[in-house]
Write a structure and sequence with these properties.
With 306 residues, the chain is mainly α. The chain has helices spanning 2-16, 20-27, 32-66, 72-75, 80-98, 100-125, 131-138, 149-163, 169-176, 183-211, 221-232, 237-271, 275-289, 291-295.
Amino acid sequence: IGIPLTILEASSGNLTDRGPVGTFRRINPRWGPGVGWFLVAMMVGIMSYYFVVSGWTLGYAIDAFQGALKPFDEFTSGFASVWLYPLVTVLVLAVLVRGVRGIERTSRFLFPLLVVTVGGLALYSQSLPGARQALDFYFNFDLRTFREPRTWQMAAGQAFYSLSIGQGLVITYGSYIPRGVNIVSSSSAVAATNSAVSLTAGLMVFPIVFTFGMALDMGSQLSFTAFTAIFSGLSGGWLIGIAFFSLLFVAAFTSCSGGMMVALASFRDEFRLPRALAALIVVGVVALLAIPSALSFPSVGLMISG
């Protein structure tokens, strides 16, 4: 499901040389722009909390350099979520002003380092006491679950979110792909690499979870809690922690930059704005929308309808 839809979106952006608003206008001048702007609004909403999460990765990278990694609850007990995401905002703005090539150069150099780090930690995790239990949990096969619609619904949701399908991002990136590039093979390679890294990350995480008796349903906090526990007790853990959280920040940051390209491309296409002005507008909107998410974790504990 994921691969053909990725090919479809990348090809449509490549054919129109436009972001989601321009692409859907080409499909249908009447209702197409509304669909495109809906995708832009959805991506802006996603980025409003993703900026905060990326701020956590930056904070953990800073703490790793200082040798002062803290459990997630302690890390967010102050106002780290509030003051870190503006730093991410400024960095994203700088990248958007420079253009997509800045994202490309950063990714080409640092993503292989992230893959090597994740692979090395996955191998190390297999030596932990909880590795056997983790493998039984991770690779347990139960045919009955494949007959449940909920399983397929969750798998499709994961594929769509992980590959950014239906969010306008693949369309936007497709508009930057030079003509003549084989979109079928490149899209398939993206999906295959994405799945391989995800599976390897599971081999890295779950042995830590079972060894230290952590809850499996901790969600996004698991990355910060599990790795903090293992790095503190690992020989050379300080250097590995620096490498891991620095590269994790790079991964999160490039996702922020890529997501914001969706809004930037649409504003530039539709309103003929200079790149710097369009970047300032879209990043400013996201920064304002991120305030409630940032205030939900510290002592303020902001809640909206529960």
